[in-house]
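Form 7-S
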Amino acid sequence: MSVSWPDDVDEILAGDLAAGFAYLTPAKGVVITPMAPLGLRDRDAGTLTFSTSLALWKKLDRIRRNPSVAIAYHAREHGFTDRPGFVLIQGRASFDPEPDREWLESITPEWDRYLGPRSKGLSGRMLNTYYWERVAIEIEIERIVSWPETLATGTPQIYGDARPAGPRPQKPPKGGTAPREDASKVAAHVERLPHTLLGWCGADGMPEVAPVTGATASDDGVELEVPAGTLPDGGRRAGLTSHWFMPRMVGQEQRIHTGWVDADGGGVLYSPHTSAGYRLPASKTLMTLGSASLAMRMRASRKAGIAA
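Output:
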């Protein structure tokens, strides 16, 4: 049966410019990528849809291997609602690897509303991969967890499948759990950028995501501040993403980490193992150049068997 949701949740799904897309790694870790969902949803069918460039093929490869995903609606700025709340969508994702030009043109009103009109002329040709070498990812929703406050405090409402109890701790990686990236830099990103999300694999194999409100570097890693009771005790692989964005996403920064998190009921310690990210100032020219660079990644997408 499809999952239905009330108007207050729908207002957030329709209004947010940016959301955090979470998917699983083969080792049951989580990667969280900021994206623009464009408000594409079908309440009758119980689905959400968003698009992504084929050049960003690693995300699609992970979905192809494990369709369990989540989307965290956590940021209100530059969108179309100021309603408080933190909404986590969990479900199964699927995509057709062949771009559908007719569908991409059909979402032009949503694209224009959230991201601005597509460029024409030379800029439009430079952005051909970004605009048209895209596929739709449809998420069949299995559960919606909705907190009344944006920092995910209070008692959440559950729509769809019941939420299972916290998962058991995971087996530590062979390389150990100690930080492999500079913890002070990671903590600085959390403190500097307005939004940070922590993700891990739940008991039912779905990504779980919670907001992070602060961080302090220590000799052992990064001490995180998260809502009480959200993270299960024990150690597990986890993703940590901090980001910032401007209107229509012209100007943005992302700092994406994977690593290990330990929780003991009173504290949360994160050990970053990998790091990726970029910063684009609020410049239309730099945004165009950055998006045009996606064309250079298409060869890797074809080699991975994602793009034709």
